Amino acid sequence: MIATREMYNKFDEQGFIGPIRVLSAQDCQSFLQEVSDAHKLPPLDWDKGSAVSSRAFFDISTNPLIIDVLTKILGEDIILWGASMPTRSPNEIHPWHSDIESSASGGKTVSVWVGIENTNRDSSLRIIPYSHHFGVTIQEVRQNHGKSRNDITDDEIIRWAQERDKRSQLVMPEMTDGKALFFDGRLWHSSRNLSNKTRRALLLQYSTPDTAIRIPDLNYLDWPFHQLNVPRPPCILIRGSAETSVNRFVSAPVAPGSGWIPQLTSRVYPLRIPLPPDEESGWKPYPIFYGSTANLQTLSCHVSVLTQDNCPHPPHAHDEEEILMLLAGEVDIILKNETAPEEIYRKHLTPGQFVYYPAHFFHTLQTTSEDPANYLMFKWQSDKTNTDSKLVFGQFDMFDRADDSVIEEGFCYRLVFDGPTACLRKLQCHTSTLTPGAGYEPHIDAYDVAIVVIEGEVETLGEHLGPHGVIFYPGGEPHGMHNPGKTIAKYVVFEFHKS
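Request: output the structure for the sequence above.
Response:
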């Protein structure tokens, strides 16, 4: 299923689209099993904070079928602020309401209700199309009529709705397990389970980053609503970028398969080149970091020193993808011929150049300069993507000679490459320049970011960093950049996009 303009128009006009299949029956059962195993991990701060503590919730919240629809409605910048599993026993009713968190006139929110177990038309949501345009919640209307939560009938709901829009009616979507209903949280809706089995569903709630989300005071479920200023609900940036002032952002749970590998947080690592070699072995690695993130099962960075004529290892291949950046000295990259594996060929690398190795690509290198080579490596692994067209091996220059001629006051950006890989929806590399005094305010990205300073000086996370310094920001953590020096600062950026 591909989201279309017609779907967006329907959502905008009627307040919902669907049902749309986003999960298989096996997916639903696997989710239930994972959630059952993860009950020892409670939601963070409130009952809708499960995506922060449970990878099972987070993985479904980033399902490409769901994200595809959301981007048509919300745009490229999306946050997840609510994840819960509403369960209804036989004959249980959830009264008519509008979502308190979405009730403000400003902002834009989308709720995604996914049937998980024993889902059918009689056990699922009931909605009033067009009601998101009324400018009033059902709780306020009910209060004005002197009615309590459990003291109104469907006929009254329909009558009140049709007084505001004659097209309004009660709709009971044909839901089944694995199908999703996308709806505006301001929509008048309720649920009731008329079956003889317990119904379980998944509720995921999203918004644009500039929509302020607050936790309701559960002592005031009727109008007028009360909302808490502290704590703010933990939000996860699912896609794009966000400013940091409106909502509270946290990192997503680490990628599945990470095991006991440490979870990476933002870090700054000064690196002074050249580093001392190991004259006896000819090769010496210096670790910088190793860990996991919400996007990657493993991500590591190290710098190596390799003396003349030495190789760190014979040509080899591995599951990880890799960036190798030459900082000092000169090397030959030694590669196998794809069509004739018994043949090898060489590509010369000088400082300021780097290569990208796809997974399972045979490679090694050898120092050709008299002075030892110093090179930096990023290596990562994660679940495979379904993309057919993937980035291939490439050799790149960090900065063109023409770059300085186009630098103006402030910030200058140049794309080096951009494309999907076996592990990532997108791997992007770009170079940036900051003139003295220039910079940008703290913000949050949904993806992991690694930076290597090439020239000048930058300030980030309260630290000053010079040439060859390494910076890492995991997705979901705020960061900004500033040039405190008197000369132009240059740095190369790698973005690891998973969702």
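The longest helix spans residues 25-37.
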